[in-house]
Amino acid sequence: MTWSSALRKSVRTGLTVERTTLTPLLALRSALGVAIVIGLMLWFGTPKLAVSSAFGAFAAGVAIFQRSWRPRPVLALAVAVGLAVSTFLGYVAAHDHLLFAALLGVWTLLAGMAWAIGPVSGLVATQTVAVMLVTVTLPTSVSGALHHAGLIAFGGLVQATLIVLLPIRPWGLQRDALADALAAEADYARRLRHDPVARFDPQPLMDAREAAELTPRQARSRPRQLGGPRGVAERIRPVLASLADPVLGAPAEGPERDRARDLLGAAASVLDSVARAIRWGRPVRLSAEAVDTLEVPESGPILDGAARRSALRLIALLGDAVEATDEPVRTTAPRNGEPKRETKGEPKREHRHLLRPSVPRLVPVVLRALRREARWSSPIGRHGVRVAVVALIGYALGSALPLGHGYWVPLTSVMVMRPDFGQTYSRGVGRFVGTVVGVLIAGALMALFHPGTWVCAALAVLCIGLMYLLMGTGYSVASACIAGYVVFLLGIAGEGWSQTVQARVALTLLGGLLAMAAYALFPTWETPRLRDRLADWLEANGRYSLAVLGVFAEPAEARPRRVREALLDSRAARTAWEDATARALTEPVRHRGISRTAERAAESALATMGRATMLMEAHLPERSTDPSKGAAAFAGALRTALPAAATAVRERRAPDWSAPRAALDAWRAEAGDTGVAVRGTELLTDALEELAAALSPGPGGRNRAARRL
């Protein structure tokens, strides 16, 4: 993509207003927190204290709306503590420009590195830099620093208190994540009726798994509906694919295919019903037609062989999903920690959950993440250096210009910059346009009506309430609301609106241009790294295939946990590849090392490889089954060929799969061994050879890849 095309796309993305689900009650509660803080400070303090303390409540409210599985009060308190610390340090160092510049550089570098922990951590760290920049203009005594830091923390405490006192749809994010995963599988089942090899995006299942990670405190109050269906959903997906597959499931045409389509449709209906029950905490309501379809027929078309095993397992799993969901919502254990008494004759149930480390135990996790990304080749590491340098340059330029409010230059740059090109440029455009619109509207209201202090406070709360409500629709809309919020806050403090408008527009433009120029001069392109991402996905897929084949080779030594962990690694690698290709599409860099045609063909081949392994996983043998020497031989050949193949992908060579193909031919030649494992391995080997054809240098390989697409 050329620079002109990339810039045009960034402008369109930055100005796009998306349709999204609004949460008015959540927005109203967060705006109420800001209103309480501003009102108390105006009533008992001064307008300047109200302006200063409002930032804590505002930032804590923004963090509440982020996609995080931590309890909302914990998020609000964590933001309050971070803002209070940065406020205090900024006050203490503000009297000396050199000392403050050194503090700003180190703090911004760490804030940029915080993206290694996660997007929510990166956003919160960015806000701590913003509040540090704002404190430059305020008094710098130590007692004043402690006072203002306490006010900032008070704002976050108010938001956390409101969350506890006014709960709105508790466990709502976790319910939505699990319901979305089940709804995605229902859609997958419907698509399989017409396309037996339809692709499935595992992202909803990955989100549901993240949402299921609980701290011990959360585990004691998690609704029963959120406990069991996720594991069932994970097991249903390969069964759906196996039933629909024309090679390992029902035949492509005939009465058995019609029966498979009916079962898939009924499964979709049941999964949708379970998803609705989980989303709203209600009992499951199943349609009579779906229940009748899932009954084993006494006559008519009946499935046979592997398809029949898949159908029976699907019916059992759907029953487990309904049973795990169709109960009143209750806690998993008594709040006092005593063991739950069991009813006589009732089987003992063990409530297990994925462990999420508590806040103190996050410290070593954070340190490992920072150490992992603290290298020059890391995009996060380069982002940290980039944003620190830009913040220092912006601080120097803002201080030198005679416009006042010079901190808006580095503040805009820091808020705009992200670790990738597309987000940085689109946010820069959205920030500037939103700021212009916001300050013009707010400035016009100030000029026409000259509102008093309390009216300005009410207008500021209205703007921030609109921001909370509309922040998911686009960055330009949120920026417009924030700009109006700032104008009215400064109106509370008695500053002239006309100077505020002119200075903010000019300095925001300068900060945005500085951020864009920094990425152009010191980029971190994803495009040259695509082959590395592809090789990582190949290695992860290979480990998943080896784990499944290992069960066929030695059923008595099967380790389901090993298969599960390999599947999760494969999903993570696939997601990393898809994210990388999405970022590469926005970059003004020619594809180096892999063409777009080869990229799409290689992605299709690896997706097919993962699907073939998943089909075999749906038919894993029992522990009492005899070992398969053919599976062991093929697994050995694949294990030997995999490292060299990954190296070949990175070095722009076609991988060699001749040894696995020979092992498959020998396995297939064994008398009577034509089961699921052989047919699944054939699909897997074909996918590996498609990958080799897609990555073969020269026009021959590219033409073969294009024909396969």
From TrEMBL:
Basic and acidic residues composition-biased segments: 337-349
Pfam families reported for this sequence: FUSC-like, FUSC_2
Domain of life: Bacteria
Keywords, alphabetical: Membrane, Transmembrane, Transmembrane helix
Localization of this protein: Membrane
All residue ranges annotated as the Integral membrane bound transporter domain in the record: 394-517
Ranges in coiled-coil conformation: none
Any single Gene Ontology cellular-component annotation: membrane
Domain (Integral membrane protein YccS N-terminal): residue spans on this chain: 80-190
Region of interest (Disordered), residue spans: 325-352
TM helices/strands, residue ranges: 21-43, 74-92, 98-117, 148-168, 385-408, 428-449, 505-525
The UniProt record lists the keyword Transmembrane: yes
Topological category with respect to the lipid bilayer: Multi-pass membrane protein
Protein name, per record: Membrane protein
Organism: Streptomyces eurocidicus (Streptoverticillium eurocidicus)
